[in-house]
Amino acid sequence: MVLVLNGVLQAKCPQDTQSLYHSHPIYRETAGQLLSIPNKVIGPVGLLYVMQREFASTIPHDKNVNILGSDSATTCIIVVVRHTGSGAVALAHLDGTGIDEAVCTMTQRVQELALGYPEGRIELQLVGGYSDPNNYSEEIFFNLMNSFHKQPVEIDLTLACVGQLNTTVRGGIAWPLVYGVGVNIKTGEIFPATFPDKGPESSLRSAKNLTGPPEVMDVYDCNMGLLRIGPFNYKPLRGVDLWLEQNDEFILRHLSTSPDVEPPHFVEEMRATLKYIRENPFPAVTVFGDNRPHYFRRDENTGLWTPAVF
Questions:
Q1: Which CATH topology does 3-307 take?
Q2: May I ask which residue range the UniProt record assigns to the signal sequence (predicted)?
């Protein structure tokens, strides 16, 4: 049992965000510091964007990546694990699916990347997950705390901008204050951010979350500098044509865990995902016919991800 809160090793982990903030007011201060940073709009050059049910890890001297980031988190929580000595860092966007495996793999990956650095500790930062009406975020927070508490290495929670601290009320409706964050991999700085460019094959990656396997995928090999997508399969979506015939409000109400507070691009991206599923109902055949990942490499001239040919 190795979760560290406010510098103190814990015998048990907090049951909810309210008890965390009550017992450790320091997290109110660190969340306030994050919220005081102006939101940055990050372009695609040097960005490694992590979608829902994905994680990626890298090191400060990765010449292909400057910023790790994710956004569009309402009930989801963005998780950052970083080793202070080496600067090795992993970021995940978690919706409650595959948390135990994702936490274990992220922690192991950061430890592997930090080998050879005797100094330093592993820090954990959580952002997102507002006080939604159905308490989805609280359940994710609780499961995250338990998963990190089970890891065989001390993990120091340094930031928890979640739940009530990531919530404001407008017109009687609770809204997230921060939808996304970026991490500067060279300095470890974390800041509120939005990312207009979600990286390559975003509709394919999103399709996996609608009808695909309940797992969190590792999408980056920092040793090779390769963004890696798949291979995976998902089930055909019954009635996909009917879904596409519905109006925006219907799609918003039925395909979101937080329809009142989704960012403006939610429905547009969901329609693109539904169209992709209609055109590729069996991705194991039409997309990953050779059962190999799709690899992308950073183009040295443009700074953008381009298909890697082997």
A1: 60s Ribosomal Protein L30; Chain: A; (3.30.1330)
A2: none
Residues 6+ apart with CB under 8 A from 238: none
Side-by-side strand order, sheet with 217-218: 8-9, 3-5, 155-163, 122-130, 77-83, 89-94, 54-58, 217-218
Which residues share a beta bridge with 70? 181
- What are the E-state strand segments in the chain? 3-5, 8-9, 40-41, 47-49, 54-58, 67-70, 77-83, 89-94, 122-130, 155-163, 167-170, 173-176, 181-184, 190-194, 217-218, 220-221, 226-229, 294-298, 305-307
Q: Can you read off the two tokens belonging to residue 87?
A: 């600067």
| 180: nearest Cα among 64, 82, 40 | 40
> What backbone phi and psi angles, to 5 degrees, belong to 176?
-70, 145
Is the pLDDT at 14 greater than 90? The verdict is no
pTM above 0.85, yes or no: yes
User: How many other CB atoms are found less than 10 A from the CB of residue 130?
Assistant: 26
- The SS3 assignment for 87 reads coil
In the chain, the percentage of residues whose pLDDT exceeds 90 is 86
Alpha-helical regions (H) of the chain: 17-23, 26-35, 99-113, 136-149, 202-211, 240-245, 248-255, 266-279, 283-286
Instruction: For residues 196-216, give the mean pLDDT.
Output: 92
Pairing assessment for the beta strands 181-184 and 155-163 based on DSSP bridges: unpaired
User: Is a pLDDT exceeding 80 seen at residue 4?
Assistant: no
Please check the confidence at residue 1 and state whether its pLDDT lies above 80.
no
* 102 secondary structure, DSSP code: H
Instruction: Tell me how far apart the alpha carbons of residues 179 and 163 are, in angstroms, rounded to a whole number.
Output: 12
What is the C-alpha to C-alpha distance for residues 241 and 245, in angstroms, rounded to an integer? Answer: 6
Locate the domains of the chain by residue range.
3-307
| Structure confidence at residue 10 as a pLDDT band (50, 70, 90) | confident
